[in-house]
Amino acid sequence: xxxxxxxxxxxxxxxxxxxxxxxxxxxxxxxxxxxxxxxxxxxxxxxxxxxxxxxxxxxxxxxxxxxxxxxxxxxxxxxxxxxxxxxxxxxxxxxxxxxxxxxxxxxxxxxxxxxxxxxxxxxxxxxxxxxxxxxxxxxxxxxxxxxxxxxxxxxxxxxxxxxxxx
Length: 166
Fold this sequence. Notes:
- By secondary structure, this protein is mainly α.
- The chain has helices at residues 8-38, 49-66, 74-81, 85-94, 110-126, 132-146, 149-159, and strands at 72-73, 107-108.
- It has two domains: 8-126, no CATH class; 127-166, no CATH class.
- The radius of gyration is 20 Å and the shape is globular.
C-alpha cells in the first residue's frame, strides 16, 4: 500500500506539536539537571549530567531548526492543556496564550502553550479542583503586574528602602 504524505496544513500541525513537545522535554531535562546538581533524587534514576547536557544541546538545535511562525490549532491546544475549546479561545483573546500573527483559523504559539501548561500544572497540584481557576487567574495577574515597569520600579525602591511617606 502506497504511503501518502500529509497535507501541508497537517505537516504544520505536526511541527507545532513537535515544538510543544521539545519545550516540555527541555523543562523536564532542566529539572533533572537541577535535581542532580542539588544532590536530590535517586542518582540511579537520573541521567548522567553529561548526557543531560548533550540532550539539551540537541533539543536546542532541533528547536532552532523547527522555528517557524506555525502554531497549534485550538483543538491541539485544548488537548495539551486539558481544557475546553472555549477556554482556549478566551485565553487567546485575553492574552494568556499568544496567537500566531495573521493565522486563520487561529493558531496558538507552542511556547505560550508550554508556559501556560507549566503554570496550570503547578496550580492543579496545589489547589482543589474548584479553586485552581481562581488561583491561576490571580497568579497570571500577579505575573503580568510584575512585568510592568512601574511595579518593577516600586519593588526596587522598596528593596532600597526608598519609600515615600505622606
